[in-house]
Design a protein that fits this description.
7 helices; single chain; 202 residues; 7-stranded parallel β-sheet; 21% strand; 9 strands; Rossmann fold; two-stranded parallel sheet; alpha/beta
Length: 202
């Protein structure tokens, strides 16, 4: 069984939706160790509401902060601090989907980044890519950062509208496996999340 960390090339690239699709497709368990912006809702609840199978378990966050900022600042606003030594992946005999918060270099505290936490709690990374001006740069920098730290990359998932030429350049240049291209979802529902598994290549 694998602990798979779902990372994004930036914030708002669709990590939660991709995590829901992976959780449903693999009938895996789900965990988001650090959640900010809980006043606007929790990704834990979003994924739980979108998953249909009865095998997946959903684990509570290690840190839950109210304001929608990077973890280090959200923690300050809630008079807390993030200690990555206190974060341990939940015990399960199932595959575990672990959703990150923001991009790889988002700060968790005054000296540590999200990428510092990944090797402690996960076996490999799936990198979620979304199309916007600068996304090629962000994708290749994210790949290089993971490779420099010898963190295994299972593959890339392209989320939403993506120019074929840009996608092909990223794949050719990086030589990272393409796990799938999820089309833009106009209606996010259990039924549609369940259907998205056909676009994955595992």
């Amino acid at each position: 069984m694998k602990k798979i960390f779902v990372a994004g090339i930036s914030t708002n690239v669709g990590k939660t939706i991709i995590s829901a699709i992976l959780t449903e497709y693999l009938q895996a368990d789900y965990w988001k160790p650090i959640q900010t912006g809980s006043v606007e809702g929790r990704d834990l609840q979003t994924v739980k509401d979108l998953v249909s199978n009865d095998k997946s378990q959903f684990f509570e966050e290690s840190y839950l902060f109210s304001q929608p900022y990077s973890p280090h600042y959200a923690a300050i606003l809630d008079n807390q601090s993030v200690d990555i030594q206190r974060i341990s992946s939940p015990k399960t005999d199932n595959n575990l989907i672990i959703e990150g918060a923001g991009g790889l270099f988002v700060p968790l505290n005054g000296k540590e980044l999200l990428i510092d936490l990944i090797p402690k709690i996960a076996d490999e990374v799936i990198l979620v890519c979304s199309e916007y001006l600068g996304s090629i740069n962000h994708t290749l920098l994210s790949i290089e950062a993971l490779q420099n730290r010898k963190i295994p990359i299972k593959g890339l998932i392209f989320n939403g509208d993506f120019f074929a030429d840009n996608q092909q350049f990223i794949l050719n240049y990086s030589q990272i496996f393409n796990l799938g291209h999820i089309p833009k979802l106009e209606n996010i529902s259990k039924e549609n999340i369940n259907k998205m598994g056909k676009y994955l290549h595992f």
